Amino acid sequence: MSKTLSRIWTALVLLFLYAPILIMIFFSFNAGKSLSVFSGFSLDWYRQLFTRSEVMEALKNTLILAVLSSIIATLIGTAAAVGISKMRNRYVKNAVLSVSEVPMMNPDIVTGISLALLFTFVMTMLGLKSVFGFWTVLIAHVTFNLPYVILSVLPKIRQMDKHLPEAALDLGCTPLQSFFKVELPAILPGIFSGLVMAFTLSLDDFVISYFNTEDFQTLPIVIYGMTKRTVTPDMYALSTLIFGTVLLLLILSNLLSARNENKRLRLTPGGKKKKKEVGR
Question: What predicted TM-score, i.e. pTM, was given to this entire model?
Answer without folding.
Answer: 0.78
